[in-house]
Design a protein that fits this description.
Blueprint lengths: L18 H13 L8 E5 L2 E16 L11 E16 L2 E14 L7 E14 L4 E13 L5 E13 L3 E14 L23 E12 L5 E14 L12 E15 L2 E14 L6 E16 L2 E13 L7 E16 L2 E15 L5 E13 L4 E14 L4 E15 L1
Antiparallel strand pairs: 1-2, 2-3, 2-19, 3-4, 4-5, 5-6, 6-7, 7-8, 8-9, 9-10, 10-11, 11-12, 12-13, 13-14, 14-15, 15-16, 16-17, 17-18, 18-19
Length: 408
Amino acid sequence: MSAAFFALAVAVPSARADDEEVRAAAALAQNQAQTSGAGFVRQIGDATYAWRPYIETEAGVDTNPDNSFDDDGSAFIKVESGMKATLERAKEYYALTLKGRFIDFMQLEEDPQRTDFKAAVDTRFTLSDSETFSAGSYFLRDMISLARADIFHSYMEYALRADDYRVRLLAKNHTERNLVNDLQGDDEFDDFIVSRSKAFDYSRSDAQANVLAFTQFMLQPFLIYDIASIDFTNQFAGASIDRDAVEHFGIAGVRFQFSRDFRIDVGYRYNYRDFGDRTFTQDDSGFIDVNVFWQPYKDLKITGVVERYYDEATSSFGLVDDVKSYGMTFDWNFVPQWRLAGTVYFDDETPVGDTLHYNKLTSTMSLSYDVNDHLELFVSGLGKWVEEQVADERYERFKIGSGARIRF
């Protein structure tokens, strides 16, 4: 349903995997229909093969690409290329997605030229008229951020859609391995020098069950339960901070299904995390959980979310980040060939075990024009405001760029 920095001397903001920007892009992508061109499609027997490559270029200005309190801006040029290959039969679907980016921050003194690469494999099988099984994995080598990392993610999902109820069972793993500051987290010592470091390497494995009942009625009760094991792989026995944990969260509520185009999920979420740490042994939190979907007409989709969750630690003394999040996205094809899309998220974030308190506001906006089936022109922008209230530290980030996307 709905399913994260301290000033110098103690910690600095994490540059890797700008969580707020990544989340905004992912949320918006759920709203948007596929915009790839027809690509190269071939029918062989009962199987359809497709290959859809693309190239994207963008130029603009980013006032703080490393999300730092010591901001250092630069003009940039980005080149991105990728492809998606699919094989589809009546009850089977396979997809391979590859993507690579190169960004030249022309005025930055530290690592101005940066890259990343992502590869993903996804499958889906139709088991019956009401059952599907999906599985997939992706690998991301993030060399765009100053704190380099390899990120691995895998999932398996079983879904049952009966006439009057739905069941979803999910198993997933998320693993992050930092590629810099190799001495940090070494077994010989336990230090608190941070940006991102080996001390923050972790693997999280989840098992989750979702049930939605009475789907033929307007009021549809639902229940979600998730159990996760979090293993910080470079901690040593007796470390002064032990982030290893077992987490449980549950959400219970009601879906108000007013129509196919308008629904509101309202519930309560309870989070509990049992730490291996000797000082902070456990933490729990509860909050309302709201998810809204509204499509007032065919070419406009709006979503909203209110949730509270734990995110892995981003400060040197924090065990985990307790985040209250409020967000909205929209996607609007307001006239043929023109699309306006945007997101806004506000996060109230408190690291458990640290004395920090952050307020974060992140907003994105894009305007695109489809010249034809193969060429798209776009302008995009990002605004981010971060305030740490205890040390009274803050930074801002603004990014604007324009470019073209060629779809073959």
